């Protein structure tokens, strides 16, 4: 529970571990339905969200705020560094919405956010609802449903804003970027950009690692600017690890083989149960 994790972080509990995971939490904006068929409205929505405040005050489990799609661990492993997105910018958000013809939300249709039933998703949705009202001046309605119902909805495209996420099958930035290829069945926002698709195709065929990174970075920058997806944070996993446990090292997919684990004798003063 997040309240326990917050307390353990504050007290410096020695057996607390917080590891990165290859997952990103985001909202998708349906690009072929009003009002998010206008890129300026999508940009305004993205810039209205205070991700740092969300991570620190609402989630409180050391999640990493995200202004881009690809998790940051690939810089150390593959030399890939994501371009930074605009982040929380109330003035920029208001200007973008006004440029789209909706100053202070005037003339916007009713906007609904859908998410699957879970306490943390509800808290995030309510936080976003407040951010949008305070920054952009319009009401965002929220609706929760079971996960299977949400999946059916997003696959059918019958939504405006929806909560979802992506966890990588393999450790590479492309597994995040290809989600939004025009032909991808997971492209829930119906994002269509031939230039983006072309960059992905070139990156997929590129054998030089540096040039491949350049192409992927250009594709991710384009995705950030077009804003069909609004990343919130990169997942972390908090757990308690007794000091005698050996071989349980951080692992991005949380796959730990028992054959590599063993228990050392308890140090003086430690329990052995």
Characterization of this structure:
This protein has 273 residues and is an alpha/beta fold. It is 39% helix and 19% strand. It has ten helices and eight strands. The strands form two sheets. The chain has a six-stranded mixed sheet, with helices on both faces. Strand 3, helix 6 and strand 4 form a beta-alpha-beta unit. Helix 2 runs antiparallel to helix 5 and helix 9 runs antiparallel to helix 10. The protein is globular.
Assembly classification: single chain
Mean model confidence by pLDDT: 92
The backbone outline, from C-alpha atoms, is globular
Describe the sheet with the most strands. Answer: 6 strands, mixed
The strand line-up of the biggest sheet is 2-6-1-5-3-4
Low-pLDDT runs of 5+ residues are: none
Ends distance = 23 Å
Helix content: 25-40%
Summed up, the helix count is 10
Structural class given helices, strands, pairing?
A: alpha/beta
Strand content: 15-25%
Radius of gyration: 20 Å
Question: What's the SSE pattern?
Answer: HEHHEHHEHEHEHHHEEE
User: What's the total count of β strands?
Assistant: 8
């Amino acid at each position: 529970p997040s309240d326990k994790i917050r307390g353990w972080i504050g007290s410096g509990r020695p057996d607390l571990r917080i590891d990165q995971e290859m997952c990103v939490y985001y909202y998708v904006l349906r690009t072929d339905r009003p009002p998010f068929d206008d890129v300026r409205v999508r940009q305004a929505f993205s810039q209205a969200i205070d991700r740092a405040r969300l991570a620190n005050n609402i989630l409180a489990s050391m999640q990493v705020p995200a202004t881009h799609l690809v998790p940051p661990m690939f810089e150390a492993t593959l030399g890939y560094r994501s371009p930074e997105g605009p982040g929380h910018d109330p003035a920029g958000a208001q200007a973008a919405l006004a440029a789209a013809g909706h100053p202070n939300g005037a003339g916007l249709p009713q906007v609904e956010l859908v998410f699957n039933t879970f306490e943390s998703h509800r808290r995030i949705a309510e936080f976003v609802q407040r951010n949008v009202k305070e920054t952009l001046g319009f009401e965002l309605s929220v609706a929760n449903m079971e996960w299977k119902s949400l999946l059916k909805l997003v696959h059918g495209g019958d939504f405006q804003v929806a909560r979802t996420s992506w966890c990588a099958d393999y450790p590479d930035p492309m597994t995040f970027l290809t989600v939004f290829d025009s032909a991808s069945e997971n492209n829930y926002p119906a994002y269509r950009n031939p230039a983006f698709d072309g960059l992905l195709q070139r990156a997929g065929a590129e054998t030089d690692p540096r040039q491949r990174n350049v192409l992927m970075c250009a594709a991710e920058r384009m995705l950030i600017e077009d804003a069909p997806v609004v990343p919130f944070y990169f997942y972390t996993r908090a757990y308690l690890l007794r000091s005698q446990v050996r071989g349980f090292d951080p692992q991005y997919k949380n796959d730990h083989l028992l054959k590599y684990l063993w228990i050392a004798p308890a140090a003086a003063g430690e329990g052995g149960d």
